[in-house]
């Protein structure tokens, strides 16, 4: 699954995490200001960024673009020397390009979040003071539209690129398995695993992988913002006053939901795996019956299908209470952000613009922490596919 596309996967992903950590440490320990050595304006790293599209070509952003490209080039050159994988250009440079696009999308969300406060404060001011200049409202909306246009364009292009990236990954797996077909052809469901499971694995990884990286980058971008906004919200319902109230409220709620969902859904990956096994056994007998009249007799098919039915009914039962808990949690989550702000709203401690900004940041951080909750059904499916392909590959390792 991985060594067909990535060079030396265990070492590759380990070095990727290490290199990412080194770059983050350097950036936040002063590297963000090193652009002055290239002629960028003094103090550009601490200058207030514009709320609009001009932010994306500000000196701070230009320096980040240069940093990211140089860092990626160093990593790619290292692996070019270290390993020779025919898909290395896609797995290294393609992965870096996807990471950059996800980071850019998160930065657009940060701009939109910064836009909430002044725009809604402007609305509140006009409503409470008998009106104002309508052109200010039009100007504020146009600022949002310009940013949204940049986001949509970048997001659509990224989806297009990710689709090609994932299909290359599937192609790499397909070439690897077909090259070893003589060793694999005798395994139960070999044709299905090469044709269908590689397709499902690549497609599922497309959604889960992008969502995971986006969640991590959203946390990196919005957690400091939520930390600073916590100074405006000191009291929480029931709990009362605690330091950094918003941060603790977001983390505790997400951890609670994740724990509950993992508890009620722990049986599902195994059932999904068994489901693939019984379906493959039933399909295999039908295929044999196409060429051999002595195979696929009614009694054998009835017995095999009864196993399919039994496993499906178990899946339906376990998914019923799992979905009940998951959907209830997501519905409560819709009002949780506003519920947390009730004491501050009642005390008049925040304005409308600040409330909208806090709600947006709080929601972004909660969604990032709730990655497992939102993705758990897909993760279950991926685990079942992974088990099948892992068992498939074990033949090559023996």
Question: What would you say this structure looks like, in words?
Answer:
- One of its GO terms (cellular component) is plasma membrane.
- It contains eleven helices and two strands.
- The chain is an all-alpha fold and 398 residues long.
- It folds into two domains: 179 residues, no CATH class; 177 residues, no CATH class.
- The radius of gyration is 26 Å and the shape is globular.
Topology summary:
Elements: H1 9-28, H2 59-82, H3 88-128, H4 134-179, H5 181-184, H6 190-229, E1 235-236, E2 240-241, H7 245-264, H8 268-291, H9 298-346, H10 352-369, H11 371-397
Helix pairs in contact: 2-3, 3-4, 3-6, 3-10, 4-6, 6-10, 6-11, 7-9, 7-10, 8-9, 8-11, 9-10
Fraction of residues in β-strands:
under 5%
Return residue spans where pLDDT drops below 50 for at least 5 consecutive residues. none
The tally of structural domains comes to: 2
Mean pLDDT: 81
Percentage of residues assigned to helices: over 70%
Note the main sheet: 2 strands, antiparallel
The structural class is mainly alpha
| Strand elements, count | 2
Radius of gyration: 26 Å
Which geometry do the CA atoms define? globular
**SSE string:** HHHHHHEEHHHHH
């Amino acid at each position: 699954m991985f060594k067909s596309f990535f060079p030396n996967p265990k070492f590759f992903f380990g070095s990727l995490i290490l290199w990412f950590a080194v770059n983050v440490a350097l950036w936040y320990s002063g590297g963000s200001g090193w652009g002055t050595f290239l002629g960028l304006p003094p103090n550009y790293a601490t200058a207030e960024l514009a709320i609009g599209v001009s932010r994306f070509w500000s000196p701070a952003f230009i320096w980040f673009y240069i940093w990211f490209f140089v860092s990626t080039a160093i990593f790619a050159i290292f692996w070019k020397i270290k390993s020779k994988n025919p898909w290395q250009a896609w797995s290294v440079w393609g992965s870096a390009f996807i990471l950059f696009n996800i980071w850019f999308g998160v930065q657009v969300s940060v701009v939109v979040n910064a836009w909430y406060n002044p725009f809604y404060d402007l609305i509140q001011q006009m409503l409470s003071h008998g009106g104002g200049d309508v052109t200010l409202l039009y100007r504020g909306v146009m600022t949002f539209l310009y940013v949204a246009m940049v986001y949509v364009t970048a997001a659509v292009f990224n989806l297009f690129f990710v689709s090609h990236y994932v299909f290359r990954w599937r192609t790499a797996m397909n070439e690897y398995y077909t090259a070893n077909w003589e060793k694999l052809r005798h395994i139960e469901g070999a044709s299905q695993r090469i044709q269908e499971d590689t397709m499902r694995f690549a497609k599922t990884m497309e959604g889960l992988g992008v969502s995971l990286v986006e969640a991590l980058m959203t946390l990196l971008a919005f957690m400091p913002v939520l930390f600073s906004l916590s100074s405006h919200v000191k009291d929480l319902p029931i709990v009362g006053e605690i330091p950094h109230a918003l941060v603790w409220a977001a983390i505790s709620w997400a951890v609670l939901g994740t724990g509950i969902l993992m508890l009620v859904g722990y049986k599902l990956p195994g059932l999904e795996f068994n489901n693939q096994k019984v379906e493959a056994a039933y399909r295999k007998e039908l295929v044999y019956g196409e060429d051999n009249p002595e195979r696929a007799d009614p009694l054998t098919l009835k017995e095999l299908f009864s196993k399919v039915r039994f496993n499906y009914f178990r899946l339906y039962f376990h998914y019923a209470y799992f979905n009940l808990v998951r959907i209830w949690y997501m519905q409560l989550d819709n009002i949780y952000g506003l519920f947390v702000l009730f004491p501050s709203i009642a005390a008049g401690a925040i304005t409308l613009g600040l409330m909208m900004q806090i709600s947006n940041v709080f929601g972004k951080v909660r969604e990032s922490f709730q990655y497992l909750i939102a993705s758990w059904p897909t993760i279950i499916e991926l685990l079942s596919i992974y088990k099948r392909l892992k068992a498939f590959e074990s033949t090559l390792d023996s």
